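Side project, low priority. Logging it here so it doesn't get lost.
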Amino acid sequence: MVKQDRAIRTRRTILTAAAKVFEERGYQAATISEILSAAGVTKGALYFHFPSKEHLAEGVLHEQDQLLPIPDRACKIQQFVDTVMLHSFRLQTDPMVRAGVRLSLDQQAAGLDRSGPFLRWAEICNELLEKGQAQGELLPHVVASETADVMVGCFAGVQAMSQAVSDHQDLPQRVNAFLRHVLPSVVVPSVLASVDLTEGRGTAVHTELKALHAEHQPTHLS
């Protein structure tokens, strides 16, 4: 058990170091030696967990899937908004998420399959939109899968622009503007009127998730 815990910690240390290097340098320019130096582990330990730079990048991209999901909301459009806003908050505060986004948008990352994050986001959006549609939250003309693809493409562009212009500092404002412009063409007006689109929504959802996580942690008697 101790050995397994140590292996998990080592893997996490390597991924954190890789995320830092990928975020700063991009996939093409990043080197294994830089990641080794940042991680402070042996070459053998690194290659045990990740046989190549491509595997390291895939590990960083995959790490975002392990984050806590949004709790179920009665209104699926609110759940969709919360998912987008929370990701924006994490992009500002979590180096692993920033590195994952940098990799997924890095057109110079030759040999790296960058489709995963886009396909997963499209799948998540499509599922929420389909559930919202079943509850009468969407306008009659909406095709959920098509709208999901448009949303993911727009969101990726907003993230890229925010990174270039302000290093993600203005991301909540840009995401708020994106949602205010796009959602009226998709969502029934009476439903949209009840949805919280405020710029601080991502922070509020993050706080909610932390509280829920703390509730489910085992308590230890002293």
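Brief comment: The chain has two domains: 2-56, 67-215.
Revisit when time allows.
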